[in-house]
């Protein structure tokens, strides 16, 4: 394998999912990693705590783009990253997922003729209403190395005329993150007890997507449906969602739920593993449940993770269907848990980060090929 020079691989991240999913890669790169945090998630509960949870050193640089509009975030990040990359000229820039940070870093890398690596490439919802879909497509078509988590993702890329030699199927790095950071059984029971609940007798929910929390009717319907589930519902609420609930006059609906502040990644997956099931609009949760074997009701117009639909997940738009699915699952919960326990995760065997670093090393050790070749 190619030996990396110190701080020769620039890792650009800005949100909780990116921190989680790039943590193992950062660890494997060691001193070769130079980490730039854009600050897209600017609340310490959504950023700093994850570096501590994942035993990562503080980022080398912090850009502070949080709190702006999408266009402002991308523009500011591109401008700042452009200067950083011109000054440092790393061997490669590594990005993950579908955030404003991801797209901005890919643009900046391309502008400086620095090779870009896209971790979790090839996901597609085929829903142009999603800003994340545009970020994914932009990044995939600028990247030199596309690390696809599944064969479905690889097929998506090939359908868009991405050259096969630029694609490596690695699995998803979330698998090893969940396996490494999952609290043991006693710690999980303590987490549940602190919330005055019993294992297997509560629901864990999370909502943050604009399509769900930016419309008062939609957000109100979700909260009413969560309250109608015949089990206690724990709802760690994103600061943005809290603000929307207050603005829309929906705060009284929160009284029927167990609302908490955002919690760390190990605590969240620990609660998820002890729950009856989950209800969420998170893409990451759809992947994580396939590792700890719990079902999730996905409340979204579309999903870029079809690999779990029909097994670990069922997708539905906001409405009374949430309660109907919940009641159906509760009537056969033991059987569902047993069935899922026997299913392998579609996202790989927990070696995605190792495969990703090997692919990056192979790329860095080769001569650069023009993008699109």
What's a quick, concise take on this entry?
Helices cover 46% and strands 14% of the residues. With 373 residues, the chain is an alpha/beta fold. The protein folds into 2 domains: 9-171 and 351-364, 3-Layer(aba) Sandwich (Rossmann fold), CATH 3.40.50.2000; 183-341, Rossmann fold (3-Layer(aba) Sandwich).
General description of the model:
- The protein is of the alpha/beta class.
- The protein has two domains: 9-171 and 351-364, Rossmann fold, CATH 3.40.50.2000; 183-341, Glycogen Phosphorylase B (Rossmann fold).
- It has helices at 16-29, 48-53, 70-88, 100-111, 131-142, 151-159, 174-181, 185-194, 210-213, 216-228, 239-247, 251-254, 265-274, 283-292, 321-330, 333-341, 352-364, and strands spanning 9-13, 33-37, 61-62, 92-96, 115-119, 145-148, 167-169, 203-206, 233-236, 258-260, 277-280, 296-299, 313-316.
- Strand 11 (277-280), helix 14 and strand 12 (296-299) form a beta-alpha-beta unit.
- Helix 3 (70-88) runs parallel beside helix 4 (100-111) and helix 8 (185-194) crosses helix 13.
Entry keywords:
373 residues; alpha/beta; Rossmann fold; 2 domains; 7-stranded parallel β-sheet; 6-stranded parallel β-sheet; 17 helices; 14% strand
What is the strand and helix layout of this fold?
Blueprint: E1 9-13, H1 16-29, E2 33-37, H2 48-53, E3 61-62, H3 70-88, E4 92-96, H4 100-111, E5 115-119, H5 131-142, E6 145-148, H6 151-159, E7 167-169, H7 174-181, H8 185-194, E8 203-206, H9 210-213, H10 216-228, E9 233-236, H11 239-247, H12 251-254, E10 258-260, H13 265-274, E11 277-280, H14 283-292, E12 296-299, E13 313-316, H15 321-330, H16 333-341, H17 352-364
Parallel strand pairs: 1-2, 1-4, 2-3, 4-5, 5-6, 6-7, 8-9, 8-11, 9-10, 11-12, 12-13
Helix pairs in contact: 1-17, 3-4, 4-5, 7-14, 8-13
């Amino acid at each position: 394998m190619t030996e990396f020079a110190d701080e020769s691989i620039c890792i650009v991240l800005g949100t909780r999912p990116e921190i989680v999913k790039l943590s193992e890669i950062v660890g494997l790169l060691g001193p070769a990693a130079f980490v730039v945090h854009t600050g897209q998630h600017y609340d310490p509960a959504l950023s700093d705590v994850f570096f501590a949870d994942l035993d990562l050193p503080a980022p080398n640089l912090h850009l502070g783009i949080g709190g702006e509009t999408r266009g402002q975030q991308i523009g500011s990040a591109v401008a700042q990253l452009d200067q950083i990359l011109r000054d440092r000229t790393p061997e490669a820039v590594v990005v993950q997922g579908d955030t404003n940070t991801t797209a901005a870093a890919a643009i900046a890398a391309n502008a400086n003729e620095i090779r870009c690596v896209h971790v979790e490439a090839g996901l597609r919802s085929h829903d142009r209403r999603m800003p994340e879909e545009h970020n994914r497509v932009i990044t995939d078509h600028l990247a030199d190395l596309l690390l696809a988590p599944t064969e479905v993702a690889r097929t998506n890329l090939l359908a868009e005329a991405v050259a096969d030699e630029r694609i490596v199927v690695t699995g998803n790095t979330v698998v090893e993150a969940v396996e490494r950071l999952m609290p043991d059984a006693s710690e999980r029971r303590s987490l549940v007890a602190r919330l005055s609940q019993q294992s297997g007798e509560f629901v864990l929910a999370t909502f943050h997507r604009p399509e769900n929390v930016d419309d008062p009717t939609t957000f109100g319907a979700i909260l009413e449906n969560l309250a109608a589930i015949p089990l206690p519902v724990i709802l760690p609420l994103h600061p943005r969602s809290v603000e929307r609930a207050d603005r829309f006059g929906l705060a009284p609906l929160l009284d029927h739920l167990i609302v908490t502040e955002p919690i760390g990644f190990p605590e969240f997956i620990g609660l998820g593993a002890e729950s009856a099931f989950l209800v969420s609009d998170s893409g990451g949760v759809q992947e994580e449940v396939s590792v700890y074997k719990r079902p999730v009701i996905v409340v979204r117009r579309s999903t870029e993770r079809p690999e779990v639909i029909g097994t670990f997940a069922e997708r539905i738009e906001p409405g009374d269907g949430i309660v109907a699915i919940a009641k159906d699952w509760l009537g056969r919960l033991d059987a569902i848990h047993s069935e899922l326990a026997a299913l392998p995760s579609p996202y790989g065997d927990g070696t995605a980060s190792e495969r990703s670093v090997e692919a990056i090393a192979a790329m860095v050790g080769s001569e650069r090929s023009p993008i699109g070749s």
